[in-house]
Amino acid sequence: MPTPSSPADLFRHGLRLLLDQDIAAWVALWSDDGVMEFPFAPPGMPTRLEGSKAVAAYMRHYPDHIELRDFPELRIHETTDARTIVVEMRGIGRLVKTGGPFDMTYIAVVTVRDGRFTSYRDYWNPLAVLEPGADFVGSGR
Questions:
Q1: What is the pLDDT of residue 134?
Q2: Residue 139: its pLDDT value, please?
């Protein structure tokens, strides 16, 4: 697939890769110096990942724990900065370990430079990691 031409297209492409569980291809969408932040992360979970290698390490076991099936209610808002979008979405699927449902609402502020993610602030519900089988980053919660 050619490189997506806008931040919204890149984001949608990244969601498709997550649904396909192609974490390596999703990480390849990141700038080497990209930063991923989790402002609502509970104690024991990372609040900031610096660089694509840190993002890759964080995401490597994601498909072993969460099987994403859809992103309904996706809304992408453009901002006054053509490189930055604000995304509202819901991710649904199942928890691999328990077979239970996964249902998470997100708001993300995403910046793209030269066709790669450079900043991704992920405002997700920290209570969701309390569900058995949801702890894909090994925080021990």
A1: 58
A2: 41
